[in-house]
Amino acid sequence: MDVQKKTDGSVNIIGEVATDPVASWMIQSAQVASKFTLFTHHAKTFPNLITALRNSMLRAGTFTDEKVAEDQVVQVLNFDIHLVKDFRGRRYIERITECIPIEEKNEYTYNHRKEKTMEGKFDKFFDNATMFFSKTTNRELYKYRNVLEFVDDSYVLVNPISDENIRGMRENMDDNDQIAFDKFLERNWGIRPQTIGATATEGAAKQRQQQANPAQNNIQPATNS
């Protein structure tokens, strides 16, 4: 791990994350040692994956607070590519799930200062107190949604990729890949992210592609039937 941090490596590939120390190393490498990390795990659902990695961090002694440990896990999990093997022995990708961290917002108010009566001040105080205890005891750290699902022997796009991950993906593509990715987003979800992470040479590359493939210039967004 220490050697990897001092290199210019882009991808860390970790095998089976089956023990608590390996889970801790995986989280660390995904945070600081590379652009992204690939690993395998045997969780059956996405929430189970989060819970298993969180518990490994706690048992390894890396963290002592459940919420803090879970937050660290959520911050490094972008996509879960879930494979299954049916009773026929056929192995396939069942779904691709995106993890979207929920940013904590400061929703506390100072409205008690505007109240004229002690009863009104107490009401505003207890509003803030209720919000505090809700965040402390039952704060949601993430939401998840399937981007792709395997339905009736075919793959179906379900939900669009979040803007944050679209931006990160485009920033690591060359001009030609960015253009192809933009066409994919517009064709399937009506998203036009050309201004997100666009490079200075993307316009020239797009013009070259249009000249080489004039029949593919007009892209119509998909419609739901």
Overview of the structural elements:
The protein is of the alpha+beta class. It starts with a helix and ends in a 13-residue tail after the last helix. The protein has helices at 2-5, 20-33, 46-59, 66-76, 118-138, 163-171, 175-189, 202-212; strands at residues 11-16, 36-40, 79-85, 91-101, 142-151, 154-157. The chain is globular, with a radius of gyration of 23 Å.
Distinctive features:
225 residues; alpha+beta; four-stranded antiparallel beta sheet; disordered C terminus
Taking strands numbered 1, 2, ... along the chain, how are they ordered across the largest sheet?
3-4-5-6
Strand content: 15-25%
Give me the strand/helix succession.
HEHEHHEEHEEHHH
Indicate the overall shape: globular
The averaged pLDDT comes out at: 80
Q: Count the DSSP helices.
A: 8
Summarize the main sheet: 4 strands, antiparallel
Rounded to an integer in angstroms, the radius of gyration calculated over CA atoms is 23 Å
Quote the distance from N terminus to C terminus.
50 Å
Which structural category do the helix and sheet elements fall into? alpha+beta
Task: Give the % helix.
Answer: 40-55%
What's the β-strand tally?
A: 6
Low-confidence stretches: 196-200, 216-225
